Amino acid sequence: MIPENLLAIETSCDETSAAVLVNDNEVPTLSSLVVLSQDVHKIFGGVVPELASRAHLTMIDAVVDQALQESGRTLDDVDSVAVTAGPGLLGSLLVGVCYGKALAAAGGKKIIGVNHLEGHVFAPTLEYPELEPPLVALLISGGHTMLLDVAEWGNYRLMGRTRDDAAGEAFDKVASLLELDYPGGPEVEKLAATGKDRFAFPRPMKDNGFDFSFSGLKTAVLYAVRASENLADDRADLAASFQEAAFDVLLTKTKRALKETGYSKVVLGGGVACSRTLKDRASETMKDTAELYVASPRLNTDNAAMIGRAGWFHLAAGREHGYDLDASARFPWPGLADT
Ligand code: KG4
Ligand code: ZN
Question: What is the best residue among 171, 278, 303 to mutate for testing ligand 1's pocket, by most ligand atoms within 8 Å of CB?
Answer without folding.
Answer: 171
